[in-house]
């Protein structure tokens, strides 16, 4: 049976649901972050992508977006970038704190603590610093903050101690920020993607294959088989979740984490 046609005017409403909104997306130069920037752009938002200079160099950004080189591990760079946003008129409605790194797989007893510090400097402190400097620009008018956490925020993952701990920490940050910022009409939520075959993820699978692990195709099939929907999520699936959390579609949602994982996390 054919699905019912959308309500009259519904498509138009969805298309323009972010019209006039200004967004900042960290780590938006490639991968999941870029897909999120593209989805927000399709629905009317404009803004800036903060990412590492070498990534922005080769990146084609979506319509309405400019790039700004920012290392989120460097608070001074974040402060200066948001100062520029403020100088450009100050309007900021959406922040997607997405920049993050995934280190190579490592046994917990072989943890490299320098690597641990680097993961936390980017994945946790980088998000905290992003919120610290973004929130003053949003306090007057309210807004939506979306943090890219991970399904690893909700479950353990062997050989990923530093990464998994960093993504668990983000849950605490999101919940505290949601409690503190609700009075300013700022909503704070997290996305929890399951395995997504971004280029970064494919690089890691190739690395593992090179170490005698399953081939890239076998690894993808194994990941899909762990999800009730028998597939991994795509960058576009995650971008759809970001659109929901960044838009008025989720006006009554704050402090939550939204798994986008084909059900991977409940298995
Ligand atoms: P990616 O490497 O393509 O994207 C990460 C982005 O962050 C890149 O553009 C990168 O340049 C940027 N970045 C890294 N360090 C930075 C820094 N110090 N300052 C500024 N920007 C920096 O990988 P991805 O798979 O698209 O991951 C995006 C986010 O999604 C990450 O937070 C990651 O942890 C999360 N995530 C990914 C998966 C997955 O399977 N791919 C699953 C769950 C969560």
From TrEMBL:
Record's protein name: SDR family oxidoreductase
UniProt family annotation: Belongs to the short-chain dehydrogenases/reductases (SDR) family.
Gene Ontology MF, one: oxidoreductase activity
Alphabetical keyword list: Oxidoreductase
InterPro entries attached to this UniProt entry: NAD(P)-bd_dom_sf, Sc_DH/Rdtase_CS, SDR_fam
The species this protein was found in: Roseitalea porphyridii
Transmembrane spans: none
PANTHER family: DEHYDROGENASES, SHORT CHAIN, ESTRADIOL 17-BETA-DEHYDROGENASE 8-RELATED
Pfam family, one: adh_short_C2
